[in-house]
Amino acid sequence: MAAKRFGGFWRRFLACAIDCVILYFLSLILLLIGLLALKSGGVSFGSIAMTGNLPLGTGLFAAVYAVTALLTGMIYFIWFHGTAGATPGKMLFGLRVIQISGENMTLGVAFLRWVGCLVSALVFLLGFIWIAVDRRKQGWHDKIAATLVIRTKNKTDAGVHPDGNLAPTVDPPSDVENFSI
User: Domain range spanning residue 95?
Assistant: First the structure.
């Protein structure tokens, strides 16, 4: 029952897919801006298509674009996780990232989690697939940054403890002494 409170593999996968679509459109805008800058610098796309020869500086353009796209993704994930605890995709699916201690995310922990995502992707994406088999639905990046992804949309999903136990949803009755969970 407690496992339902953590963000599962498919829910997180779909949230990530939405974030990737958002980042795709952001990188497409960056690419178009870069191509317009190349065109204003005298590069003719018609001559490139006809001859197949790339002008000098095109390799540099591709490298700058790749680094810019990587930095955009890094800023996107760190900013949303560090400030709101969720990216737009996670918000749509009712997910939120918290520290194992139960505290909200910080930008530092979000950065560590992003670096952990690079580690999770290194070996055939095994760090992400690990979410499907882990008891608390943590990927390697979650374990590295000591974070949990919890569900927030359902009433029963409010108040997650790191051990997976349910948190009380109502205050204890005032006439009962020594109320315990």
Answer: 7-156
The answer to whether residue 163 is domain-embedded is no
The answer as to whether 169 is a domain residue is: no
Domain count, the chain: 1
**Residues 49, 46: Cα–Cα separation, whole Å:** 5
With a cut of 80, say whether residue 52 has pLDDT above it: no
Average pLDDT, the chain: 84
Alpha carbons 164 and 4: distance in angstroms, whole number: 10
3-state secondary structure of 123: coil
> Which backbone phi and psi does 136 adopt, to 5 degrees?
-105, 15
Q: What is the pLDDT of residues 141-178, one digit of tens each?
A: 999 999 999 999 755 444 555 454 545 444 444 443 44
Q: Looking up tokens 């829910």, which residue turns up?
A: 11
Q: Is residue 170 part of a domain?
A: no
